[in-house]
Amino acid sequence: MPHPIMFRDDDMGLAEVRRIALGFPETFEKISHGRPVFCAPKMFAVYGGSAKSAAGGHTRYPHCVLVKVDDSERRALEQDSRFFFPAYMGPLGWLGLDFEAAPVDWPEVTELIDASFRMVAPKKTIKQLDQR
């Protein structure tokens, strides 16, 4: 059974995330588990997510971006209340940035997506990016 679509094209921040993510070489968007996912060819950003709640359910973050983060930056980001540990992907090195927690700093989002891209993209694709 397919997952229901969990976003609308006019959702807060989605157009900006698309613009940033699709600006990297050889990237594409697909829908996975009802959410926009950006790949190169591996997944490096996801729009929307959830976190497991203390009560055992899930807290939804419909307007957020999930990115893979380097272990050296994880601790600092986890101290920031805008970030959350996403269900399923958190143990794999991902964090979520909730766009509703504070005004969105788009240069920061761009840096986070760039770092995530560089962690998963092939070396030749990163070289293309650096030659721009």
From TrEMBL:
Residue ranges the record marks as coiled coil: none
Record Pfam families: YjbR
InterPro entries: YjbR-like_sf, YjbR/MT2646/Rv2570-like
Gene Ontology MF terms in the entry: transferase activity
Keyword terms, alphabetized: Transferase
Listed name of the protein: Phosphoribosylglycinamide formyltransferase
Organism whose genome encodes this protein: Mycolicibacterium poriferae
